[in-house]
Structure formats: C-alpha cells, structure tokens
Design goal:
single chain, mainly alpha, 0% strand
C-alpha cells in the first residue's frame, strides 16, 4: 500500500469515499448489491488493487451492523450449503489476484454480474412458483448453491463484488425480504472476516489503509440507519427490482471503467 497515495487525497475525493461508505451501510440494511457503486467509487479515487484492501474493513463494519439488525432472520441451512464452495472460490480468487491485472479483474467480474442478473430475471419470469429456501436440500439446490458459492467467493476475493452474485442466488432461491437480508448479513460477515488474512498477505491491508478506514467508518452507521428506515417502506417486488438493477449497474460500471 502506498501511503503517499492514501494521504494525498483531496477534499472532494474524501467526500466521494465518505459517500461510498455511507452507501455501504445502506446496502447492508436495505438493498444488497448497491455497494457495487461503492466499489466503483473506491476504485476511481484509489488505485484499483489498493481500493479493495481499504474497502474490506468498511464492508465488515456494515456487516456487523446488518447482523445486529437482522440476526433473527438468517436461514442457516442455506449458509452451511454455501460456505465450502465459497471457501474454494476465495482460494481461487487469491491465486487469480497474484497474476491478473486490474483490467482482467474488472472485465471478468463485470461479465459475471451481468450474466447472473440475466439468469435471475429469466428464471423468475419463467418459474411457475418461487422455490422455498429449504429447496437447497435437494440435489438441484445443492448444485446451484455450489455454483453460486464458488462464483461468490471468487468475486468477493478479487473485487469485493460478491454481493451481487449472492443476491442473485438468494433471489433465485425464493427468499423474502427479511430472510434475504438476514442470511446475507451473516454470510458476508463470516466471508469478509475470513478474507482479511489473504488481503494482509497480498499487501492490500496495512497500517495506513486502516487509518483511512477509521476515518471513513463513521459514515457507515448513518447509511445503515437510513437503510433500516427505508427497508420497511419497500415492497417485495420493488426490493427485488432494486437489487437486480444495482447488480446490472455495478456490472456495467466494471466493464466500461
């Protein structure tokens, strides 16, 4: 991490990072997937690889707030099905980061996000009825969980962009709003904390980056409170549309940057 890069940030650039941190809090308690916009802002202000290390602790702060808010709504059978595949994806993503440049990373993640959004829209339009979350115990459910789990682990490791992938999985599995938020809250808290040693080993997290995180963390709480207020005013259909729209926006941003 380049200390000079971190601390020669203009006021407008810091304001952009603060807004991105606020958006992280909002996305964790309202519209999961919206933090792909935060990812794009961090990568625009900071060097692309360094931005992932700065953003990760901010995401963890948001995850803690989300767990405190929605802890009673988590669906643990889904989580246990996902974790082994996600672990494999994180390892694969770590290896990928060793040799891939920023351009390859952005293009790969953007394409995956758009593909997941398209598949989810198609599935929801053609399905006669929504799956129950317990369907993860079927053979087809296990295959789907493993596929999305590997993609989610990979994308969260290389670009902190696992949110949209897992959002697409939870929507396709038929989760309602609170179950969606509770399950994703625990999922990302556990996964993001597990990524910290890998990020430290890659040099993406160090003392200067943590100091910048400390300055930005205060903006996550207002965003989380705003999200908690907004989620009670968003119906299920609008909630799903916003999640998919945020995923598409994030994917396009990664492809055109």
């Amino acid at each position: 991490m380049n200390t000079m890069t971190l601390w020669h940030i203009s006021l407008p650039e810091f304001a952009a990072l603060a807004f991105a941190a606020l958006l992280v809090g909002f996305s964790k308690t309202a519209v999961s997937g919206a933090n792909t916009v935060s990812l794009a802002i961090f990568a625009a202000v900071l060097p692309a690889r360094a931005s992932t290390g700065v953003l990760l602790p901010i995401l963890i702060v948001g995850d803690v707030l989300a767990v405190l808010t929605y802890r009673r709504h988590a669906h643990w059978p889904t989580l246990w099905r996902l974790f082994p595949a996600v672990a494999a994806g994180v390892v694969f993503g770590t290896v990928f980061l060793i040799w891939a440049d920023d351009g390859i990373v952005r293009t790969s993640i953007g394409a995956i996000l758009l593909m997941m959004a398209a598949v989810t829209v198609w599935r929801r339009r053609t399905a006669e009825k929504e799956d129950d979350p317990d369907a993860v115990t079927t053979r087809a459910g296990r295959v789907k969980a493993r596929s999305y789990g590997v993609l989610g682990g990979f994308t969260t490791m290389v670009a902190n962009a696992g949110g949209p992938v897992m959002s697409m999985y939870l929507l396709s599995a038929g989760f309602r709003k609170l179950g969606f938020l509770g399950t994703s809250a625990f999922f990302f808290l556990i996964v993001n904390v597990s990524k910290v040693p890998f990020s430290v080993g890659l040099g993406l997290i160090d003392g200067p980056s943590l100091l910048l995180d400390a300055a930005l963390a205060a903006f996550v709480l207002p965003g989380a409170l705003l999200g908690r207020w907004a989620v009670n005013r968003i119906n299920q259909r609008l909630f799903e549309q916003l999640v998919i729209a945020a995923t598409v926006v994030g994917g396009v941003q990664l492809l055109i940057r």
